[in-house]
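Support case: alpha-D-galactopyranose complex. Customer-provided input:
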Amino acid sequence: MISFDEKNAIFTLTGKGTTYAMGVVDGVLEHRYFGAPIHAGDDLSLFRGEAAGSFEARIPGTVSQNQISAEAPAYGRGDYREPMLVFRGEEGETTVDLRYVGYRIVRDHKLAGLPTSFGGETLAVTLSDPVRGVSVELFYTVFDDAPAVARSARIKNTGKGKLKILRAYSAALDLPGNGYDLITLYGAWVRERMPERTPVRHGVISVDSKRVSSSATENPFAAVVERTATENAGRAYGLALVYSSSWKISVEGAQNGSTRLLGGISDFAFSKTLSPGETFDTPEAVFAFSPDGLGGLSRAFHDYAREHLMNPAFVKRPRPIVVNNWEATYFDFDYERLYPIIDAAEGTGIDTFVLDDGWFGARNNDSAGLGDWTVNRSKLPEGLTPLIERCHARGLKFGLWFEPEMVNPDSDLYRAHPDWAISCPGYEPLLSRRQLVLDITRPEVRDYIVSAVNRVLSENAIDYVKWDSNRNVTELFSSAAAENDRECFAHAYALGLYDLFERIVFANPGVFFEGCSGGGARFDFGMLYYFPQIWTSDDTDAGMRCLIQYGTSYVYPPSAMSCHVAACPNHQNGRTTPFFTRCAVAHLGATGFELDLSKLPDEERNAIREQNELFRRDEDLILSGDLYRVADPFSGNLFGFLIVSKDRSKATLTLVKLLAETNAEHLFPRLPGLDPAASYFIEESGATFHGDTLAEVGLPFDCRKLGDFTAAVFHLRRV
Ligand code: GLA
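Agent response - structure generated as follows:
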C-alpha cells in the first residue's frame, strides 16, 4: 500500500513485513526508514540528522546534505558520500541539486527493454534540477506478499544542451548506524557463490563485475546485516540487482554514523549522453528486509522472485527431469552413442533428454561451429529427427543446447561476417575457449540469431532449450554502434541480450528454457525473469554442490537452481560420493542427470525411478516452500537444508555429513520454521516430535560411523 501524508510530507510504502518511508524537506526527498512494519502517520522528520559542525557546506536554512539521507543522492551540493547519480553538462559542470516535483501511482509499471518486477504497486516520484536540465523519476514497487521494494530510476534530459550521465545507479539506501557486516558471494568457475562476511567500516567497500555479465567472480547481491546477526536472528537488509551485465554494489560506513548501500550498472567505462528530451532507465535494484537474520532475508528474496519476477507460467509448475549427455559423451557422440542413454531413461521418471554442445556446424570440439545453428551432418547425418523420434518412442521430450551470443572464428558465420564479432580496432581479438562474442548491440546480428535459433525450434519438436554463454567480453567496443551506445557498451549488450530473450524465450512460450553460462556464471535476477531455472555450476560433485547451492540460496530460491546427478569419480574434482548423496543434493533444486545412464551399475539404475518418484512427491516444496539453512557447511562438517511447506504441514530435511569423523558426537540440528504447537511424524525414523521441540532441541542425528559425504533425508508430516 502506498500513502502520502500531505501535512508531514511523508510517503509510506507498506508491503508484507516492511515499511519504507520517505519525507520531503526543503524540497529534498529524504529517506526516513526501511525495515519492519511501523505505523504510518508518525512524524518521522523528528529523526532527521542534526547538522554537524559549521565546517560542512549547506544550502542556507537547511541541514548539510552530508548529514541527511537523500533518496537519490547526486554529486555536487555537499553530500560527499558515494552518489547514486553523477552527471556532466556540456561545459563539464558536475553540480546537481535535485528537488521534489510531484508523484504518481503507476499500474503495471514496466521498464523499457529491461526485466521488471510485476504484480506490485508502484510509486513514481519526480525530482528535478532546472539548472542542470535533468529530471529523475524514482520508481518504488512494493508487494503484498514479499518483504521487498524494487527500485529504479528514469533520467531525463530536460535542458537545451547535451547531458552526460557518468553514473546511473538504480538506488541508494542509507541505514542507521555503522554496526553492520557485509555479506557478498564471490566465486569462480566450478566454485560459484561462496559467501564472504566482513565488517562494514568507515570508507567504501565495493563488489562488481566488469565482464559484461553478472559473473561468477561476484554475484550482484549484497546483504548488510547487524553485526550480531545470525542465520536466524538479527536485522538483515539485502540488495540484489535485476541485471545481467557489468554492475557494481558499494557499501559505505559514513562520517555521520549511517551506512549507505547502493548499486546498479557499473560506472566503470560507462557514460551515456542524452540529447534534450531523451530518457535513460536504470535496471531494478531489489531491497529486501528481514528481522530474522540471513535466513529470513533469503526467504524474502525467494518469495519476491517466485511471486514477482519469475515467469508465472513455469515458476510453480513441476520441472522437467532431464538427462543431459554432456558429461556422458562431451563432443564425442553419434546416434549409436546417444540411443542407449535415451533408451535407458525410459520408465525411470526422467522425462526429457537434452542434447548438449556439439550437434551443429562443424562442431567436433570447442574450436569450431559456434554461430552455425544447422545440424552437424558428419555426426548426425539424418539431422535431429531420429533422436527426437527415439525420445518420443521412449516417452521422453527432447531438449537442445544453444550458445546464441557466440561465434568461433572457424565458422561459416564468422567467415561471412567477421565484423559481427566484438573487437577493438588495432587489437587482435583475444580468444577465450577459442570463441568470440557477437556484437548483439547491432540489430542485424540480433536478427540473425533470432531467425537462426527460432528456425531450429520451429522445424523440430523441441520442448526444452539450454541457453549457454561460455566467455566474457574483452576489447569492449562496437564499431557499428552510435557513439552514445559505445560509451555504455556493457549496458547496450544487456539491452541486446534482453531483446533476444524477448524474441526467442518469450516468443516460444511452449518451450522450457534453462539459463547457463560456463556453469553458473550468469546467475542473477535479470536472467531469472526469463529463465525459470539456471544451471548452477559445472561442478557436479555433490560435496562442492553443498557449498555452491548453500551460497546460491542466499538470494535465489531452490527451484531456480538446476542440479544434476553426475558420474563418479566426479569429472571436476575426482571425488567419489555415494549415489544416494548425489541424488539428495540434486533434489534440492530442479533435478536431473548428467551421465551415461546405460553404463550405470544395476543398483543405481534401478534406484533412479525410486529417486525420481521421491522427488516428484515433494517437488512442491522445492517449487514454493520456505528454505531454512539448518547446518552451515562453511563453518562445520555438516550441510543441512530444511524446506517447509507454506502451510507448515510437511517438510523435508536434507543433511550431508561432509567428512567422516571417528568418535563423532551426536548432532542435533535445530529445525526452525515448523508449527511449534503441531506434532510432526518423521517417516524415516518413525518418531514424532512437536515443532517447538524440533526448533529448540533439534533432531537427533547419529553421525557415528558415517563415511565421507553421507546424506540423510527426513520427511516430516504434521499429524
Ligand atoms: C558449459 C556448460 C556445460 C556444457 C558446456 C558445453 O561449460 O556449463 O554444462 O553445456 O558448456 O560446451
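The first helix runs from residue 293 to 308.

Case will auto-close in a few days if no follow-up is received.
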